[in-house]
Amino acid sequence: MAHSAPLITKPKGTNAAIKKALGKNLVQLIEANDEIGLLVKRDALVDVMTALRDECEYQQLVEIAGVDWPSRSPRFEVVYCLLSLTKNHRIRVHVETDESDPVPSVTGIWPVAGWLEREVFDMYGVLFSGNNDLRRILTDYGFEGHPQRKDFPLTGYTELRYSEEEKRVKYEPVKLAQDFRSFDFMSPWEGADYILPGDEKAPAAPPPPPPSPTVATPKTTGTPAKTGAGAKANKTAAKTTKGAPKAVKPETAKPRGAKK
User: Fold this and answer.
1) Bridge partners, 37 (sequence order)
2) How far apart are CA 91 and CA 34, in angstroms?
3) Residue 220 — pLDDT band, cuts 50, 70, 90?
4) By mean pLDDT, which of 97-111, 140-154, 171-185 is the weakest?
5) Cβ–Cβ contacts within 10 Å for residue 146, how many?
6) Do the bridges between strand 158-163 and strand 168-173 make them parallel or antiparallel, or are there none, so unpaired?
7) Would you list the domain boundaries of the chain?
8) C-alpha to C-alpha distance for 109 and 144, rounded to whole angstroms
9) Quick check: pTM over 0.70?
10) Residue 191: pLDDT above 70?
11) Does the structural domain 14-129 have CATH classification 3.30.460.80?
């Protein structure tokens, strides 16, 4: 049975056409899993996008995403997903940057990039030069930090709630009211270094019993006479067995009306 999704194949000569159009602005072309990724120079991003749109027929900007690599320099990566409507083919364009170096805006090529660049700025803190409306779009006014960074805590720094007493929305520091929020992976059954809530009300355990006294010379039985065994005991046991009554075999119950 054929798959319901359309078959997407790379047109012939795509790699060669892209390399020719981008020239020295192309740092690396990576092809894996039937997908093409282009690492390009950050300062030449606008020229690269214009060439991909006009010469390689990738007319549509679908998405702009951010990636955070804390241990790498430059730390951030901005990924542009392009679609060719005439070729039915997609490619990705990657640029590397950090907090201080802005990425050229592509709003002059695709006006829709304005909102997409604001999302990357809001979530990762990446700056875009040439975007005249670079402000937060997903978080609230006065929000501190960038939530999609790897070093941003999952709980955040502040929480938002509505106060019935003051009849307004309030910002407060995050308070983890639930118990057992700090896991120490210690088993209370095997003995933990702390007292569980409620255990302080239980009565104290009785002290352990004193240890048994140690005996210097253990008790031993040296001869059969001391144990009650021997030839005399064997004769007495044989006489007792001969005089014992024999076991009677129980009769099987017969149904009513059966002949004896």
Assistant:
1) 30, 92
2) 10
3) low
4) 171-185
5) 20
6) antiparallel
7) 14-129
8) 31
9) no
10) no
11) yes
